[in-house]
Amino acid sequence: MAKSLKLIIEALLFASDRPLSARDIQVCLPDETPAGINEKLKELQTEYDSLDRSFVLKEVAQGFQLRTRPEYALYVLKMLKSSPTRLSRAALETLAIVAYKQPILRQEIERLRGVDAGGILRTLLERDLIRIMGRKNLPGRPLIYGTTKKFLSVFDLKDLTSLPKLKEIKEFGSDEAQTESISEEEQPGAVAAEEDGAGPGNDDRESIPESTED
User: What pLDDT was estimated at residue 52?
Assistant: First the structure.
């Protein structure tokens, strides 16, 4: 039965279009415990890693999901004739504020960014990256915003505690700036091209990390 249980779980993972938690799987297997299901999920994870296949079993968005390895995603995207979803820098900044400060009000987001956030919040809501968590007990009953499970899935996070610490981000930014400074000294032509608007710095949009699901 142990082997059969693992195969049933594997079948459910292949058929699902979203991450499945042990409790999600238990709905189909009421005689099994979440602990037992988690044990089989970990075994499957180890097996797929040892087989060096084109896919892995990732723990994301408080569940498990079969995902194509990043090095093969481009071929799958070509087959599907799709490209990574793109967000503007302003949308990414707003999303980061919601992720780190949630639950948060629109007024607080606008105070931190210094600009109106209504349009960006609508875009993030439409893309299911943020959600309305309720209303604050203040005059006007303003909406409270937080991130969604899709946000965790898109950014390959197990849960919100997996977000990089602000200190780590600052250190990364410092190292990156130092690297760019060295690069600019060695290659002044690249800087000139960027200042003329011919380089990558002229693009104000960035890609959301793309994970291709099985």
Answer: 86
How far is the C-alpha of 198 from the C-alpha of 196, rounded, in Å?
6
Half-sphere exposure of 207 (CA within 13 A, CB side): 5
Structural domains of the chain in order of their starting residue, each with its CATH number: 2-68 (1.10.10.10), 86-154 (1.10.10.10), 172-205 (no CATH)
- The answer to whether the peptide bond before residue 70 is cis (omega within 30 degrees of 0) is no
Number of H helices, E strands in the chain: 10, 7
Per the listing, tokens 């820098």 go with: 89
| Confidence band for 156, pLDDT divided at 50, 70 and 90 | confident
Our CA angle for 81, 86, 89, nearest 5°, is 165
pTM, two decimal places: 0.58
